[in-house]
Write a structure and sequence with these properties.
Rossmann fold, 8-stranded mixed beta sheet, 18 helices, elongated
Amino acid sequence: MATKPAIPKGTRDFSPAEVAKRNYIIQTIKRNFEKYGFQPIETPSFENSETLLGKYGEEGDRLIFKVLNSGDKVKKADLKALEENNLARFSNSLSEKALRYDLTVPFARYVVQHQNEIEFPFKRYQIQPVWRADNPQKGRFREFYQCDADVVGSKSLWQEVELVQLYDAVYTDLGLQGVTIKINNRKILSGIAEVIGASDKLIDFTVALDKLDKIGADGVKAEMLTKGISEEAIEKVQPLFQFEGTTTDKLKQLATLLADSQEGMKGVEELTFICEQVNALGLDAAVLDLDVTLARGLNYYTGAIFEVAAPKEVKLGSIGGGGRYDDLTGIFGLKNMSGVGISFGLDRIYLVLEELNKFPETVTVTSKALFFNSGHQEAAFVMQTLQTLRKQGIKVEMYPDADKIAKQFKHAEKRGINSVVIVGADELANKNFTFKDLNNGTQEVVTLEQLIEKLK
């Protein structure tokens, strides 16, 4: 007996209905990207390993899917590393390429490679799949789409203000009220690490702090201790675990806490500008919340950082994130090229819309009508009619076989097609159609012009 086929863990098949819903989200995001002046690019699904490795921190590097070398290149594997049980070095010797982990680092590579062709500031958007060797769970997959918008070549904080508005515009169009756009600044985190005497542990500090909502204050403290951060330093940072009040209140508290840190005060200044301008412009679907524990464990962020939380009634992780990266292109040889970007989590947005029943009923790939097949002559007439309707932009189809009427009705029902059109001998002779609405059971004979009007 043949083994039933399966797909790799953390990947999914999508039905026609699911693809239609995903396309609805993508088109909504894409429309708003272009409304804000972003232009599309695409990059390869895999990059040279050196392009990706070392850009996401230790945790990110572990989650990168490596592409095994083929042909004679396999012979170059570092067998000595295997004998020494150095699996990281051995696996690197087996692979020179890797599947992209996100869209931002490939974008930085693109900017450096095509810098002489680009007009700066450059606003690009990219909607493509990425891969991560993660442990699959609800809302977390090994293959998923990211929808990114980035601006490079400008240090202006108005870009951050616009990106917050862009987030709000997309979620408004999707009907997602109550979304929270969390904002922080890596300079503030650097300043906190400085004033508590843990500057040399900045990455460990921010990675641990970023897990506050997942493992709680005690879990964060325990992780910081294992990373060599002293109990005295952790005690100083304790107030951050219960940081409350309005955005203005939080900024005042930060200004007091970071008074002795030039870097930290610069972060407070930047956040104050962004928050004040966003509040002046207003948001429709989202609220902007200053979250000082937000760290996002990606090493390349240097300024404002964002993370979007779904409405409270949905228990799910972030549905978007991003931030400012002042030196990302520098690792590829292009200095002083500041950038800022955000990403929409397509798969998680889908889950939120599904759970909240927010997909419009019109989001479907189902045909507007199924034309029954009553025989050769009738089918030939129907095919001419279908050609006319399709030129009008109407989605229609004909049942391919001249089967029993009951079977054709059943097919329309299973497909979710709400209208059927019958052309028998009488209709063929009179060049008209019997139109039946399956929702209410009504049936009438109509002309081609009347049929077009009904189906439109």
